[in-house]
Design a protein that fits this description.
Layout (H helix, E strand, L loop, with lengths): L1 H11 L7 H20 L1 H56 L3
Helix pairs in contact: 1-2, 2-3
């Protein structure tokens, strides 16, 4: 529950997730202090490891999404160029057959 409220508090401040200092000051530090206070140091180590794993998964997904976006952008550019080429060929055929 504590982590949930810490995360909700962080999100309510509207801090950019890419702002590492803002993330550290407004979530990591308060969460670290609260975890140690509420559950003790040994359990806090376990929670910190789980948070690190979750962060690694998030970063992997984020990088995958960026790669997919670039792939789709390349596909769109190719499709767009092919459409333009087809329009030119259609125009030539229309002229050739007086359509």
């Amino acid at each position: 529950q504590f982590l949930r409220s810490s995360l909700d508090n962080f999100h309510s401040k509207g801090i950019d997730p890419k702002d590492l200092k803002g993330f550290h000051v407004n979530f990591v530090e308060p969460a670290r202090k609260g975890i140690i206070e509420h559950v003790g140091l040994e359990h806090a180590k376990h929670v910190a490891f789980a948070l690190k794993e979750a962060n690694n998964i998030y970063e992997t997904i984020n990088l995958s999404n960026e790669k997919l976006a670039k792939d789709f952008e390349g596909i769109f550019k190719y499709y767009d160029s092919q459409v333009k080429e087809l329009e030119q060929l259609k125009s030539k055929l229309d002229k050739k057959f007086n359509l």
